[in-house]
Amino acid sequence: MIINLKFKQRFVDLKTRNRQSRINTIFQQVIGNFQERGIMYKKYFLLSLLVLTCSVLSVSAQNHLQESLKAGNSDVPVGYRLVWSDEFDYEGQPDPAVWNHEQGFVRNNELQWYQPQNATVSGGVLVITGKKESVSNPKYEAASGDWRRNRQFAEYASSCIKTAGKKEFLYGRFEIRAKIPTASGSWPAIWTLGKSMPWPSNGEIDIMEYYRIKEIPHILANTAWGTDKPNNAKWNTQTVPFSHFTDKAPDWTDKFHIWRMDWDEEAIRLYLDDELLNETWLRDTQNGAVGNYTNPFKQPHYILLNLAIGGDHGGTPDDAAFPLKYEIDYVRVYQTEL
Q1: Residue 24 contacts by C-beta under 8 Å, 6 or more apart in sequence?
Q2: What is the pLDDT of residue 337?
Q3: What is the pTM of this model?
């Protein structure tokens, strides 16, 4: 669907430029003829002016179509408007005006070293690549009690990108089309974090996680918020065995799928290919004392896309499966029309 959308946009761009060139030519010819021949060609001028007017209207219509395609309006849900998207229709690094990169060892005792070069945009998709490679840890301290420092090397590398401080949203429909790696050790995710307060009082929404639980692959959809203890979350978690999807579609892993969040003042609903996986009512998500009893899902959140490897939940990596490819076709955020 998005490939067709991008093709249409490029076609409209070319067609619009050609029309505008033809209009300029017609206009110059009409003015020149009129000035040279005078009133004898008044009828010709009026007829040409009519043609010019029709052409201008046509260009206006084409421009409107172009803007609609750029905004993805052909797929805009009824009652919503598109407020932001990244269609990844460029080449190189993810747009630095939108995305930040995490660096190094970050969380969950994961095995990978996060670095920018493992996230690239090419052929209309963002590709986060998990690689088996040795990366030296510049913060290494053998005696440190912090796992981020007492590892001299990382044996794997990947990327995590996020919109923190650049694109943050309060409520809306979030839609991400992606194809995920499923080999042992893979831990891809689409998630959000609130802009204020430390975790988990800032609120976490896992639109998608994939990892193995007791060696059985699962798709997860979760929300988390704060309690009376620091770093202790209350979770609403739904774990769906991966077989639930692959039994219906044996080639499931070879295809792109659409993960969606519908988030408003009352609830958060998480979907995979239009199947509801989890529902969280915001009346139940008040933080504890650490979070000053606020509701973390009534503040703007930013988006994270990452491929973790191993760690607390990823499991033992299957080195024969590397490199791992996590492909994201687009990220879109809609909000209700005023």
Answers
A1: none
A2: 82
A3: 0.79
